[in-house]
Amino acid sequence: MIEFTDVGLRYGQGPEILKDLNFHIEPGSFHFLTGPSGSGKTSLLKLLLLSLKPTRGRVKMFGKDVTDLNQDSLLQMRRHIGIVFQEFRLLDHLTTFENVALPLRVLGQPESAYRDNVVELLEWVGLGERMGAHPALLSGGEKQRAAIARAVIGRPDILLADEPTGNVDPELSLRLVTLFAELNRLGTTIILATHELPLLDSFSFPRILLRDGELVFHA
User: Fold this and answer.
1) For 100-107, which contacts have Cβ atoms below 8 Å and span 24 or more sequence positions?
2) At what angle do helices 140-152 and 96-106 cross, to 10 degrees?
3) What is the DSSP letter of 167?
4) What angle (nearest 5°) sits at the alpha carbon of residue 187, between those of residues 84 and 95?
């Protein structure tokens, strides 16, 4: 599903942020992306999200070389990728239901076509009774679960998560990663960036370890 070959990335004329990355990720797998602060995790996620192209090397996703695709083709491919941010990025003027349904509304789907699916997903993540609440009335854990639901409502093939447990307590962190694991069991390929060692040690998923922009371990 994902293949990096001799990939390097720099911003402008600056030094390379990522250097000589070579790895592949199989469909339906779950990987932790880890490494110290400044190691390049967020830059790698931007490449995976197709918001950046590599400065050199090749990135293939879904069997296509993304370095050769135009913006329209990249946009179409990006619809198969979900993203969960550490800071939630919920819209304050929308309810939980409306926030989760937003990706489908953007695609032009009428509420009658997606309402049942959104309700079912919110109940599955434990927010069935919070559908009408606005973000200001949600706890940190509820906001994160709403952000996860919004990321997966379009049934992406790949789900990227950038430090999704950074704003919650250790117990909730375990619950959230368990939720990601359940999504993975249903077929979604997941790459979850984290530097929390207790969290990494609680699960046996393989790791992609970066240090100073270089891949030092991939299993």
Assistant:
1) 100/146, 100/149, 100/150, 100/153, 101/153, 102/150, 103/150, 103/153, 103/154, 104/153, 104/154, 107/154
2) 20
3) T
4) 35
Q: Which two tokens stand for residue 53?
A: 């192209």
Q: Write down the residue that tokens 């070959």 correspond to.
A: 5
Q: Tell me the per-residue pLDDT of 139-193, one tens digit each, with 9 for 90 and over.
A: 988 998 899 899 889 889 999 999 888 767 788 788 888 888 988 998 999 999 9
- Bridge-based pairing of strands 56-61 and 30-34 is unpaired
Specify the CATH architecture of the domain 2-218: 3-Layer(aba) Sandwich (3.40)
In DSSP notation, 171-197 reads HHHHHHHHHHHHHHHTT-EEEEE---H
Q: Strand ranges (DSSP E) for the chain?
A: 2-10, 16-25, 30-34, 56-61, 64-65, 81-84, 158-162, 189-193, 207-211, 214-218
